[in-house]
Automatic annotation (TrEMBL):
It comes from Strigomonas culicis. SUPFAM superfamilies: CYTH-like phosphatases. GO terms for molecular function: mRNA 5'-triphosphate monophosphatase activity; polynucleotide 5'-phosphatase activity. This is mRNA 5'-phosphatase. Its main location: nucleus. Its cofactor is Mg(2+). Keywords: Hydrolase, mRNA processing, Nucleus. It comes from the Eukaryota. It is found in: Nucleus. Belongs to the fungal TPase family. One of its GO terms (biological process) is mRNA processing.
Length: 262
């Protein structure tokens, strides 16, 4: 069967391009489905250092090692706030629909968390930050997880008619073999403070993570969509990739980016 007919993508001028990109990204992910603890995530970014757009070219797929492009993860602060509001509103609407639906419907979930991650080599020490909401109380770090992350594949999609691009990452993230939890006192390493809103759509096997990240004096606003699968081999399909890709693209204004944006 022709995949372009089988896959559902909302009608727009970008239909064929999104389907082609989704098919390619699915093939990238499919090569690694046998790995345990696999993570599939897409995030908004800016791809720089790409040769000029060719006539009628709407996108370009780039792989690490085969291109000298550079990637800056994140979006502008004002766009971040708009995107968070849009996704939260969509979750509230679907939650109302789930409430009215027959028993068993899985409603979207909105969560807010504050964490501190310390990376040392391939290990990530993760702490949940609680308290510290007023001057009288200091924030407390609660050990949450000690993980080892290994990246399997990366594909970057330059979207020529959008102010942001998309990065697909396939990774393995598994508990560290040395300890179940990080020590009470964080080790010295690359430290990132994260204030995150996570919006999960269980029926679609998707979670949006919108995170304000502070590392030293740098602050970024990251927008990511991650697969939340019960059975990744059955639920990670070309259609899921197409829906996830379109979900991110829909967040982005189609207006031509300014020089400051790019």
């Amino acid at each position: 069967m022709n995949n372009k007919k089988r896959m559902r993508v909302e009608s727009s001028d970008e239909d064929d391009a999104l389907i082609t990109v989704a098919q390619h990204l699915f093939r990238v992910a499919q090569q690694h489905l046998a790995e345990p603890h696999i993570e599939v995530e897409m995030r908004l970014c800016r791809v720089d250092g790409v040769p000029p757009q060719r006539a009628s070219e709407t996108f370009r797929i780039l792989h690490q090692g085969s291109s000298r492009h550079k990637v800056r993860v994140g979006v502008a602060a004002e766009q971040f706030e708009r995107m968070r509001a849009d996704i939260t509103a969509a979750a509230e609407e679907r939650r109302d629909d789930a409430t009215a639906a027959p028993s068993g419907a899985r409603a979207p979930l909105v969560e807010h968390t504050t964490t501190e991650d310390v990376t040392v080599g391939s290990a990530r020490y993760s702490y949940r930050v609680v308290g510290g909401t007023d001057a009288a109380s200091a924030p407390q770090r609660v050990p949450q997880a000690l993980l080892a992350k290994r990246r399997l594949a990366v594909a970057d999609v330059r979207l020529f008619h959008r102010p942001y691009d998309v990065r697909l990452s396939i990774s393995v993230e598994e508990p560290s073999p040395t300890a179940a939890l990080p020590p009470a006192d964080p080790p010295k390493g690359y430290t990132r403070h994260k204030a995150r809103t996570s919006i999960t759509f269980p029926a679609q096997h998707m979670r949006y993570d919108l995170t304000r990240v502070r590392a030293g004096r740098d602050e970024t606003y990251e927008v990511e969509l991650e697969g939340v699968f019960d059975d990744i081999r059955a639920e990670l399909t070309e259609q899921w990739v197409a829906d996830a890709l379109q979900g991110l693209v829909r967040l982005v204004s189609p207006a031509t980016p300014t020089s400051a944006d790019r």
